[in-house]
Amino acid sequence: MFLGDITGFAALAFLCLSAFMMAFRAKLVTLSGGTAPLRNAHVIVSLLGTVFLALHIGILFNLPVTIPLDLGYGAFALGLFLWATGIGFLERNRDSYFLHGSTAVALVALVVVHAASSGINFPEYVAVPALIASGSIALLSGALTIKRPRPKAR
Predict the structure, then answer these.
(1) Which among 55, 83, 84, 126 could bridge 7 via Cys, Cβ 3.0 to 4.6 Å?
(2) Rounded distance, CA 77 to CA 23, Å?
(3) pTM beyond 0.85, yes or no
């Protein structure tokens, strides 16, 4: 396994953890005792994922660009969108956490497809369960968000 692969897997692991933290934010806030510890942990985990992703891109960048690389660059663009929605928390939009968490889970799925389609050190028997897990987390997060009571309009 090469350094580029190791940094890619590290980025994927931190992105998965970050997406999990956003998808199940409400449950984790009650377990952690408040939003501040969870927010700090989320920022640190996201930062580590970003650092490893930048290292991964820097080490493995090469031409010509292929479809698996395009998927990786698409994942990077989606990551930039996530960064923007994380920094610019939409105060008036009640579902902005849901948008951020769902997009994070979609980012994980896109990274898994990128890694599996590259065909290097990421076998199909790992990719398929990872995609099933990310899809299940997205559906469960959506179901929990829909189940949550909404305040009445004024």
Answers:
(1) 55
(2) 20
(3) no
